[in-house]
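Entry 14. Ran structure prediction on the chain below.
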Amino acid sequence: MARGRMPNKRFLDAAYDLETTEQVRAYYEAWSATYNSEIGDQNDYAQPSRCAEALAAAINPNGARVLDVGCGSGLSGLALRTVGFPEIDGCDLSPAMLELARRTGVYDHLFEADLNKGLTTPHRAYDAVAAVGVFSFGHLKATVLRDLLAVLKPGGVMVVGLNDHFWDEGSLPAELDSIEADGAAGVVFREHGDHLPGAGIEGWVVVMCKPNPTG
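Output, structure tokens:
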């Protein structure tokens, strides 16, 4: 497939029809063999680097422990390591994707998780959370934002990257507003730009900071 051409349309079209956890897992198990080449190499997936750079601007990477949720094949972990984050854990629904992430060598710990059912990770365990491309139709619900904030230490930061299609659906911006209104976290950065430029898709990067009552 030529550079800049649409990724396998069978997979992209199917993404908007996913409804159950089992469907999402099967979708990525099937796509794992060609995911990196189609999304990254051939279509310049921009969100991993955009999110990593935004996170590094919000918190000093040196010594920061990051949880990469929905880490997929590890593209986001590689971007986080590139900007200086030394301690990265990752979780994903797909065992095949987790195996690809393991091969990158950038993760300290990888585990399988269905984030719509909640995280077993202890509260206040991480300095930062990255959620790159995981909030979407049939994937993570916007309400999971609060679960992710719970694993952050006070003063911790979370970066979220998502495409225009899900942003325009409205549930995630509404949840961000609700979180800010009740003081659970504040939005410190919001930027529109490239998501998957080779496919003509744009998206948003949002950084939230959890309050630190003692800081």
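The beta strands are 65-69, 87-92, 109-112, 126-132, 152-163, 186-196, 201-209. Will compare against last week's run tomorrow.
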